[in-house]
Specification:
Helix content is about 40%, strand content about 10%. It contains five helices and three strands, in the order αβαβααβα.
Amino acid sequence: MEWVKEYDASEIEESEIDLGGVDWKTCYSSNLSRAEKTASRAFDGEIILMKELREIPLSPFFRSKVKLPLAIHLLFIRLAWLMKHPSQSPGKEEIIRLMNETLNRIIENEGEDILIVCHGGVMMFMRKELLKHGFTGPKLGRRVEHGKVYVFEK
């Protein structure tokens, strides 16, 4: 959990952001400082911050004084999440419901050319929900690239 706190508070890696030639009309961002900083580099107007766009929370599968490598912890957490272990809240169904509600709110309120700045785990679920809403767009691969704009169109 200490790693998660440090990661959430870490600075962003400065890199060029290719906006795909789109004149974005509105920008929504996770209210986590890293996402907010990335959004402000990519968008000149007012940015609407949303806690619903934050990264999916990680919770330890078990508590131990033994220090394990981060990769092992993340593997246990991932397995616990997939197996719907009670240590992992919110669960997959809750994340899907929340993402669907969030996208419905954004799409209904805004119309077109919406820039959404969020985190890798959230993007995996967002992509699935966008496809269900009739959008088309790229596959994300195993790792979402920092500062890369993935354009979905309807």
